[in-house]
Every structure is written in structure tokens, then in C-alpha cells.
Specification:
Bound molecules: guanosine-5'-triphosphate, magnesium ion
Number of helices: 19
Distance between the termini: 28 Å
Number of domains: 3
Strand content: 5-15%
Radius of gyration: 28 Å
CATH architecture of the largest domain: 3-Layer(aba) Sandwich
Shape: flat
Length: 437
Amino acid sequence: MFDQIQERLNSIFRNLSKKGKISESNISDALRDVRRAMLEADVNFKVVKKFISSVHQKAIGQKVLSSITPSQQFVKVVKEELIELLGTEPDKIKIKKSGITKILLVGLQGVGKTTTAAKLACFLKRERQLDSVLVAADRKRPAAIKQLKLLAEQNKISFFSSNDESAIDVVQKSIDYTLSESKKVVIVDTAGRLQEDKSLMLELKEIAKVVDPDEILFVADAMTGQDAVNSSRVFSEVLDLTGIILTKMDADTRGGAAVSIKEITGKKIKFIGNGESINNLEVFNPSSMASRILGMGDIISFVENAKNLFDSEESKKNQNKLIDGSFNLTDFENQLNQLNKMGSMDSVIKMLPFKGVKKIGNIEEKKLIWMNAILSSMTLYEKQNPTTINGSRRKRIALGSGRSVFEVNQLLKQFFQMKTMMKKMKNNKGIFPFNLK
Ligand SMILES: Nc1nc2c(ncn2[C@@H]2O[C@H](COP(=O)(O)OP(=O)(O)OP(=O)(O)O)[C@@H](O)[C@H]2O)c(=O)[nH]1
Ligand SMILES: [Mg+2]
């Protein structure tokens, strides 16, 4: 997802962070590159123009230039603007408190309506414990009915279809069926149509009039970029769309549709499809989507943070203490606190491109929390004289911190091992516990 735009933006951010001091002209240069990257990612040109001008204003206004970490601050401004462009907050699907909720899925041919209808039913069952009826209102193609029926059977979802000529009759009957089956939601899969197909567009309008849906969701294929945006505009002129589902995001490297569609149509993306299997439907979250688009941008800010931390006086003092052997548990605790200040390690590790690391990241973050708890249950005397921490002191520390004696032992063992190791590596520079550098 977003590989291409991510790569481009990251190289811009990297270049910027290499420059020690940032000037207004550096920012203008970076913004020119961001503009180009967005256009290449097939973001609508009007959206790009507005975006660049507000980032520019904010970057200058928020004193990015005079901040300690200007490039980091710049990435932050870009991210905030991007979140706003994507819709700020997730837009939840409307489900009626009582009675049947009616959801109509519409869109061009082959965008993924039928697949999404089944995904949505599974999502509502899984996340909201709601039973749906899938309705095949595609009267033109018998294969389309079969496709939905099969998906319903495979995933144990109720299904409705009838032999009526008109899709409107099918949908009306499906509502009676849903009532009789005591289900809560009707999800109507309509026939895919071409924009210029006037009669089919009118049929959709008629269905919407008769059924009075709670949600009319426009399903669009993210891979088609600006075509997806344009067609959603055309559909929204005929129908009162309540939101958008963007499919095939897994295969979209550019992100142009995702970034432009809300600004151009005024409709928010409610879900994204990110794969062919039934569980590949996610609620669209503007903030996590912005993180995904910027990807390494966040890591760059993390690295900058880390660099500042490792270069700090405090860190240098600790390194000297480690080398001369005077490093004690108070220094150890300070170092842990500094690590914590860098933000959630877990969230940073999640962004790393290697899958296996994620789990380790999780453990490490939890470990930091319990290590802190143990250290804060020690007295100052104990921290400064770690060798005096005997069995009974260990028991008391364990009790005070709510951790086990085993964990207290582990922490002390790690601390002493680290000291021994440092003694052996006396002449090594840039040493830091946990190998995080
Ligand atoms: N990779 C990927 N493929 C998807 C996704 N959603 C749907 N597809 C695939 O897109 C193709 C078309 O999906 P359908 O659900 O049949 O599309 P449709 O809009 O109902 O098509 P018509 O009824 O012919 O208009 C299928 O091969 C799906 O597996 C997605 O999120 N990711
Ligand atoms: Mg279909």
C-alpha cells in the first residue's frame, strides 16, 4: 500500500533532515518536491494546490524554522494536514437502534461491490454482532447472483434473491424477508454500471427512492486513481451518497484516490478493502492512514529523536560511567526514562518494514514498563550500591513493584552483565544498553 508515494516523500524528508539548519527556501524546495510527488501519485491537482498552500502557511507560522528539530516539525505539519485531508476522524457506519438498517452498495463495473457486500456482512457480524441479509439486486447477470449466493453460503450469511424482472421488486421483497427472519441489516448488491448508462443510473435512483436506505455507499477501485474520484462525483450528483468504500488498496501504490476523494466529493471514506479475502475490510482511519502514507517519515522523526538523545550530554556522561565502571542503577533508571521519552517504541517498531520484529517490539515495550516499576521500588542506597541488593531486599522490591522476584533477578542480572560487558569493551565508542542504536 502506498509504496510509491511513501518512497518519494521519505526521500524528501530525508534530504531535509540532512540539512542542519532549515531556511524558508529549504521549506519551499521541499514543498515543491512534495507537490510533484503528490501529482505523480495521481492526487487531484486542486487538492494538491490547497494542501501545499496550507502546509506552507503552517510551516512558516508554527515556527518550524526556529524549532530544535525543524525537519521533524515539518513532517508533523505535513501529517496533520494529511489527516485533515483524509477526513480527521473515522466515519462510522450508521446502524439504526431499532428496525432494519438498509445499506445500498453502488459503483462502476468490477470495482468490488459483490465482494465488499459479503465482507461488510462479516464485519458487522464480527464487530457489531449484527446479522445481515445479502440481497442480489443485479438482475442483468445470473452469474452475479450466483457469486453473491456462494459468498453468503461460504460465510454463513443469509441471502435473498427472487425472479422478479425489476431490481426494485427484489429489494422490496428482501425487506419483508429480513423482517420475517428477524435480521437487522439488509445489504443490497447492485449491478455494476458504466457512468454513461442512463437507464441503469435511473434504476439506482428509483431503488434509492423506494427503499430509502440508511447508507448509500459508493464502492470505488483505488487503483483507478482519479477515475475513481471522478466517477464518485458523477454518482453523487444522482444519488445521495453517504460515504465511500475504497477497494483494492492492497494493490494501490500511489494513493491518489484515497487522498483526493473526500476533498473533491465531500464524502468520507468509511471502509477500505485491502485484499481479496473476506476479512480484508478495515474501517478507514484518517490518522493511521496518514501514518501509513508517510511511513518512514515517522521513523525519520524517531531517528532524529534518537540521535538527539544519544548525542546528549546526559548520554555521554552515562557512556563514560559505563566505561569507568561507576555506572549504577540510578544511571540505568535515567537511561530507561530517556528511552521512554522517545515515544512509544511499539508504535515505532510497528512501522518497520520487517514483519518478525513486531512481536519483539511489543515485548520490549512491556519490559520497559516493568523495569521502571522495579527500579522505582528500590531505595536510593540500593540503586547506588547494587551489589548490596540481597535476597530479602529483592523480595521487598518485588512486592513493592508488583513484579515477581524472578523479574527483579532478571533486571539485576542484565544490569551486571551489561557492566561486565562494558568492562571488556572499554575502548568501544557509542555504547548503549539494549542495542537500540
Ligand atoms: N486485491 C483486491 N481485490 C479485490 C478487492 N475487492 C475486490 N477485489 C477483487 O475484484 C474483483 C471484482 O470484484 P467483484 O466483487 O466481483 O466486483 P463487482 O463490483 O461486484 O463487479 P460487477 O458486479 O461485475 O460490477 C474480484 O476478483 C475481487 O476478488 C480488494 O480489496 N483487494
Ligand atoms: Mg458484482
